[in-house]
From TrEMBL:
Domain Isopropylmalate dehydrogenase-like, residue spans: 7-352
Protein name as catalogued: homoisocitrate dehydrogenase
Swiss-Prot/TrEMBL cofactor(s): Mg(2+)
Any Pfam family the entry gives: Iso_dh
GO molecular function, one term: NAD binding
Ranges in a coiled coil: none
Stored SMART domains: Iso_dh
Biological process annotations from GO: isocitrate metabolic process; lysine biosynthetic process; tricarboxylic acid cycle
GO CC, alphabetical: mitochondrion
Organism expressing this protein natively: Immersiella caudata
Record keywords: Amino-acid biosynthesis, Lysine biosynthesis, Magnesium, Metal-binding, NAD, Oxidoreductase, Phosphoprotein
Family, as annotated: Belongs to the isocitrate and isopropylmalate dehydrogenases family.
Top enzyme class: oxidoreductase
Metabolic or biological pathway: Amino-acid biosynthesis; L-lysine biosynthesis via AAA pathway; L-alpha-aminoadipate from 2-oxoglutarate: step 4/5
Length: 356
């Protein structure tokens, strides 16, 4: 079988992004040749440092190369300046727009040997809802009033529910191949507040229901939950969730909240997904408090590399990375300081590479 070559853009960005993205590259390079995968890497610029050097946080060249030459990318982190800086805005937000990366996917998983193991993925719509940022403020006799538009479309709701269904099926396939899990059947939970917002969230809910009623999802269980009671259950009974699909704002809040269930931001990966393209991105930021010490946890990035591979249809390669990371965590001997250990980034990376 001819090897498939994947061209991956590497965007370390700022702070510990520069420490963890090279680890992501190394784990991809270390995948066994029997998987029939080859990688080519392109170093790309974005972030606050890039902005200070060039005046652009996201150079046009970075976007053009990602669009025209790459199959996927790994994005580290960008530091957010403490005060608004004229002309600077987040390059990852811009990238999601320019590449139409409409889904933000965040798996939250503990080791299966934990006392109360959890294994869920939050699928957040990434293009609309209150994030269309159409706000205005006006004066009234009683003082100022501010308003924001919440936009929900059938198209965006349908495609996010569809990808959630696909993720549920893929997770089931990975489970059936023998990966340990707490779930037996695929389940998608639609999250909304349609009891109050009957038109916007109502449209999200009915469209998601319709998309998931497609015969290809006949083996996927579908339930729905109002977002506030969902938060309660997420913290009381997180093991109940497999795939959660939500409009942008609820998804944003749920995914940060769920990340708190597994201990360290250094463990949680994400992917920004569009048609045939995915950017893996650790959930943490640039962590200026620990940068330069060689102690940042690389696992969020290694898992993000695996997640990117899942969306490029390389599930077997992804499963290898997940298993190597889980084995490191389960043994618990070489852990970085955020997990209570004393290992340096390099030691954690080497331990995981050895397990591949
Ligand atoms: P930014 O503005 O870039 O988001 P931040 O100050 O909010 O930076 P985060 O990166 O969001 O910092 O991290 C929050 C906390 O979690 C920090 O104390 C940081 O050290 C810790 N942390 C984040 N990522 C990691 C990691 N990979 N390994 C270890 N600790 C981490
Ligand atoms: Mg932060």
């Amino acid at each position: 079988m001819a090897a498939r070559t994947l061209r991956i853009g590497l965007i370390p960005g700022d702070g510990i992004g520069k420490e963890v993205i090279p680890a992501g590259r190394r784990i991809l390079e270390a995948l066994p040749a029997s998987l029939g995968l080859k990688f080519e890497f392109v170093d790309l610029k974005a972030g606050f440092e890039t902005f200070e050097q060039t005046g652009a946080a996201l150079p046009d060249e970075t976007v053009a190369i990602l669009k025209n030459e790459c199959d996927g990318a790994l994005f580290g982190a960008v530091s957010s300046p403490s005060k608004a800086v004229k002309g600077y805005s987040s390059p990852i937000v811009a990238l999601r727009k320019k590449l139409d990366l409409y889904a933000n996917v965040r798996p939250v998983k503990s080791v299966m040997t934990a006392a109360n193991p959890i294994d869920m993925v939050i699928v957040r719509e990434n293009t609309e809802d209150l994030y269309v940022k159409e706000e205005k403020t006006y004066d009234t006799p009683e003082g100022k009033v501010a308003e924001a538009i919440k936009r929900i479309s059938q198209r965006a709701s349908s495609r996010i529910a569809t990808i959630a269904g696909e993720i549920a099926l893929r997770r089931q396939k990975i489970r059936e191949s023998g990966a340990p899990s707490i779930h037996k059947e695929p389940l998608v939970t639609i999250t909304h507040k349609s009891n109050v917002l009957s038109q916007t969230d109502g449209l999200f809910r009915s469209t998601a229901r319709e998309a998931l009623a497609n015969p290809r999802f006949k083996d996927v269980g579908v339930e729905e939950q109002i977002v506030d009671s969902m938060v309660y259950k997420l913290f009381r009974q997180p093991e109940a969730y497999d795939v959660i699909v939500a409009p942008n704002l609820y998804g944003d809040i749920l995914s940060d909240g769920a990340a708190a269930l597994v201990g360290s931001l250094g463990l949680v990966p994400s992917a920004n997904v569009g048609e045939g393209f995915a950017i893996g991105e650790p959930c943490h930021g640039s962590a200026p408090d620990i940068m330069g010490q060689g102690i940042s946890n690389p696992i969020a990035t290694l898992r993000s590399a695996a997640l990117m591979l899942e969306f490029l249809n390389e599930e077997a390669a992804a499963a290898k990375i997940y298993a190597a990371v889980d084995a490191n965590l389960e043994e618990g001997k070489l852990l970085s300081p955020d997990l209570g250990g004393t290992a340096k980034t390099e030691e954690v990376v080497q331990d995981i590479l050895r397990r591949l």
